[in-house]
Design brief:
Length: 539
């Protein structure tokens, strides 16, 4: 991610970090206020239901008491008894007695006119039933409720059911199913009442916060004005606003810190390793005697999520300087085994070279990692070659110990980019090496007037004298190839044959190259040449 992009993203994140906590606090307060109001409504619905049950229990007691009193039906004594029972009751206005479906008398006296018994609207169970909105015949009143049992009926004022003391403006109600409103303390939207009387519910609409509670056959409900519930947020805002500001400040600080860390090249590289943004490309190594592809050098490549490639000569030195080269080496080993295990098992003569840094060579920490990966994959240790630059051999005694351990594990060891560092004949003689790689700068000087052109044959002769296998890097022309073949260099790599290829393309190149034979080596190389980074390796 480019620095400018990171700065823009960090600025946007900082703005969001400042705003989002405040928005979140506002949303949280609103949700809390509505939830609290819904719980408030549910509590009052429960109290309304309890109040209704107490009123109905009182009416049941009255009816049972009326039925058990002795005396002649509708006699003066009977009427007096009914009057006394009604007066003693808290919630019953009048008691009537029916015979053969006709009202005969009430607590106020005998009834002369014909008053038929109204069919019940709600079955309350146990022989008790309820008639809704009945008009009293013995006194003037608003429509009332009539609870009946056997021959007696008790009249109840509907408002007694919702006579619950409230702490704010709200509407309470009791119903006996959809469309059967028994009592309500105020007016309500018909659409909302259909929802509330249908069963247990809780919610919020454009104008109301509401809740209902069902206990068959009754449903109690309560609702209040939504604006009233949200209006109580002001005090909560004053309490939680400092907390929101504190969270915003903390988040902005975190964003700034993270963005600074992200802008650090070291942090960028560490994150990339953790996210495994690296792939391995393979530069073919050609046997000059027959033109066959017999090996490849594994080159680590860093591809960012946005598709950009980071040059190895940028991230490899950074990894070495910051101590990140070790996890990078582990990732290289893992990728190589994942990519090439199947191909290496199919051809035991094929080998892959991996580059080991001076730090890892001296510590030897890479070797157990490599040995475990090789053992799990089922390939031969000899199929993984180890390459180290001359810098890794400065501390000759430590390097010799690491090389011996690697060779004992079955790996071949080569000195890479020979002639560009601190090497000397005595150094080479004192190290148990297997191969030497001629740096591309010496190969480029072949058949030219460059001063280094006279060095190349001496390097080759020295390697032959030490019985080291030789690999030439950076071969780009047929003249260079011919010179190296004539000088007895057995192996070469470079753009004459192919650029570094992804794993699948390398497999295809090798198959085609080896199928064509020696005569097609040059054409195959031209077919794969292209832009790339030559002998830049991931070490």
């Amino acid at each position: 991610m480019r620095r400018r992009t990171i700065l823009i993203v960090a600025a946007c994140l900082a703005i969001l970090a400042g705003l989002l906590p405040m928005v979140a606090v506002a949303h949280l307060l609103r949700v809390r206020a509505i939830a609290a109001e819904q719980r408030h409504m549910a509590e009052y619905a429960r109290w309304t239901l309890m109040r209704t049950k107490r009123v109905f229990a009182d009416a049941r007691r009255v009816l049972i008491e009326a039925e058990t009193r002795p005396g002649t039906e509708c006699s003066p004594d009977h009427v007096a008894q009914l009057r006394q029972i009604a007066m003693d009751a808290r919630n019953v206005e009048d008691i009537g007695y029916f015979r053969d479906g006709r009202l005969v008398c009430t607590s106020l006296g005998p009834i002369r006119q014909h008053v038929p018994r109204t069919p019940p609207d709600v079955d309350l169970g146990g022989g008790f039933a309820l008639v809704l909105h009945i008009e009293p015949r013995t006194f003037r009143s608003q429509p009332m409720l009539a609870m009946s049992h056997d021959g007696y009926t008790a009249l109840i004022k509907p408002e007694r059911l919702v006579d619950v003391l409230t702490d704010s403006h709200m509407t309470l109600g009791i119903a006996a199913g959809p469309g059967r409103l028994i009592a309500m303390s105020g007016k309500g939207d018909p659409r909302l009442l259909r929802i509330l009387t249908a069963g247990a519910a809780a919610g919020i609409d454009e104008r109301h916060v509401f809740a209902s509670l069902r206990e068959p056959p009754l449903t109690a409900f309560a609702f209040s004005d939504r604006a009233q519930a949200l209006g109580r947020l002001r005090n909560d805002y004053l309490l939680l606003l400092p907390m929101g500001l504190l969270v915003s400040t903390v988040l902005v600080g975190i964003v700034i810190w993270v963005s600074r860390q992200r802008l650090s090249p070291e942090k960028e590289l560490a994150i990339a390793i953790r996210r495994r943004e690296f792939v391995v490309h393979y530069q073919p190594i050609i046997d000059l005697s027959n033109g066959r592809c017999v090996a490849a050098e594994a080159l680590l490549r860093w591809r960012r999520p946005d598709g950009r490639w980071i040059r190895p000569d940028l991230f490899i030195p950074l990894a070495e300087d910051t101590g990140l080269i070790s996890p990078l080496t582990d990732l290289l080993i893992e990728r190589v085994i994942e990519d090439q295990a199947e191909l290496l098992r199919a051809d035991r003569g094929l080998h892959i070279s991996i580059n080991i840094s001076a730090r890892d060579l001296e510590s030897g920490r890479f070797l157990p990692v490599l040995s475990d990966a090789v053992a799990r994959s089922g390939i031969e240790p000899s199929q993984i070659w180890i390459e180290a630059t001359e810098q890794g051999f400065i501390r000759a005694e430590i390097a010799a110990s690491a090389i011996k351990a690697a060779r004992a594990a079955g790996h071949m060891v080569a000195i890479d980019d020979f002639g560009t560092g601190y090497s000397s004949l005595s150094l080479l003689q004192g190290l148990p090496l297997d191969a030497l790689k001629i740096d591309k700068s010496f190969v480029e000087a072949i058949a030219t007037d460059a001063a280094t052109s006279v060095v190349t044959p001496h390097i080759i002769d020295m390697a032959h004298g030490l019985k080291l296998r030789i690999i030439a890097e950076g071969v780009e022309t047929r003249e260079q190839e011919a010179y190296l073949r004539a000088a007895g260099v057995p192996l070469a790599q470079g753009w004459l044959y192919s650029r570094a290829l992804p794993a699948a393309e390398f497999a295809a190149f090798r198959q085609g190259r080896n199928a064509e034979g020696d005569d097609s080596s040059t054409d195959a190389g031209r077919g794969h040449a292209g832009s790339g980074d030559g002998a830049i390796t991931a070490r």
